[in-house]
Each structure stands twice: as structure tokens, then as C-alpha cells.
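Slide 14.
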Amino acid sequence: MPAEPATPATPAGQLRVEAIDHIAIVTADLEASLALWEKALGIRCQHVEELPARGIKVAMLPVGDTRIELVAPLHDQSEVSAFLDKKGGGIHHLALRVADVDAGVTELKQKGVRIAQEPAPGAHGCRVAFVHPKSTGGVLLELSTPSGSKP
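Slide 15: predicted structure.
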């Protein structure tokens, strides 16, 4: 049996990334995108949810230990509408699972990292925050803490 890869120790109080939670892809047409992922690629949708406060509808498709999150706008003022208008869809962000998104944001701010969106409710009961792409070499990062897992 192969040995488990070693996980580096994280000093107490330091942000620890537990896993890649999901990769978010913005689409103008959620149903058409789901048809591709489900019928052509055989990846079944696990959950669909509307987030009216954010103006989006999301579909989660599990792939191994992570998920693909398809994100579609509910209206032209949604949080992904400008991205969709500018880029026509595509990979929007990479979400990292952390134990405590609030503590993680506080720590990142202390380290001079720019936060694009403060911690707030996200899909499927998670608490999420976004790190600005100007702090990460051009990648929008989401920090996500699943419901019930915050210490």
C-alpha cells in the first residue's frame, strides 16, 4: 500500500488550506452547461441552489474529492454579470477549503493580502470570502468553510 503524502505542519493560528473545495465556472446558460457536463462527460449534478442576495444560481458536480461549480447569473446585475459580459464565461475562481474563513481573512489582512469580499454566506451553507486577484498573481481565490465545521 502506498504511503500517504506528508502534510506539512502548520503553526498554531496560521491559515491552513485543507483542500481544493471547487473550481467555479461562469456560464450564461446553466441548463446547457449541465447538459454538457452530465451527458457528454458523465458527471452528475449533486445540488442546484439559487442565491438571490448574490444574484446567482449554482450547480455542484462532484469530481473525486473536489467539485465543479457552475455559476449562472439570475439577472444582469449579479456578481458574475460583469465577468460574463467581459469574458463570455469560463473559469471564475478557485475555492480553497479552510477551517475558519473569518480567522483566515483576518490573518491574510495582517499579512497585507487584499480581500475582495469579506466573509459572507455562500452556497450550501458555507461561509465564504474572496481574495483579490491582485494579491494572488491574477487568480480570484475563494476561502470556504463548510457549514458546521468552524471550530
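Speaker note: Helices lie at 30-40, 81-87, 101-110.
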